[in-house]
Amino acid sequence: MKPLNNHLRALLTAVIGLALVTPATAFDLDSDQPIKVSANNARLDDSKGIATYTGAVELIQGKTRLSAERVVLFRNEAGLSRIEASGNPAHYRQPSREGNGETDARARNITWSASDKELTFEREAVIEQNGNLFRGDVIHYDTVRRVVTAEGGQDTGSGTGRVEMVIQPRNTQGSDGSSQSQ
Predict the structure, then answer these.
(1) Residue 79: left if φ>0, alpha if ψ -120 to 50, beta else—which one?
(2) Facing residues of 60 across strands?
(3) Which range of residues forms the domain containing residue 52?
(4) Which Pfam families match (predicted)?
(5) CATH number where 22 lies
(6) What is the DSSP string of 54-75?
């Protein structure tokens, strides 16, 4: 994969930021809503602050959902610091902030970092919202700045190895009731 020049990277980031209108936070640790986890198996190592869940894992906070075959929660003195999920694929769903639609993301590995305030989708990553689609080998989403960056992977023959996106036109209602694209 050839590295992107700075101008192309800035343009790509701007386009993606406009195309994927997603919530400002993933799992909100300041929320009054608890994070609930269910799974077939669980192991808690309290001395290390690590809880490992396996088998049809469901992690839910409010309307935000993460489902995977394996989820590991890391805690430190400040509380929950990291979530690592893996599956074939793992799924992440969250309603959009505007209340119209839902962000539906999937990848073989999904990581949420409290300190970085970032969601990372790795290996066969796809994010969809309201007909917009973003696909890459690795997709990073900064939940504070609302910036998405992506990397393509190697061409394995099953895909191009490149970052792909589909952006739906914005439609507005004209004064005569007709639909117009912006």
Answers:
(1) left
(2) 36, 65
(3) 6-169
(4) LptD_N (PF03968)
(5) 2.60.450.10
(6) EEEEEEEETTEEEEEEEEEEEE
Q: Residue 176 domain-assigned?
A: no
Global pTM reads 0.74
Counted domains in the chain: 1
Q: What is the pLDDT of residue 84?
A: 96
Structure-block tokens of residue 158: 């099953």
The yes-or-no verdict on residue 122 having pLDDT over 90 is: yes
Measured CA to CA, the distance from residue 110 to residue 162 in angstroms comes to: 19
Residue 96 CA to residue 82 CA, distance in Å, equals 22
Number of helical (H) and strand (E) elements in the chain, helices listed first = 1, 12
- Looking at the DSSP assignment, which residues form a beta bridge with residue 133? 128, 166
Per-residue model confidence (pLDDT) at position 58: 96
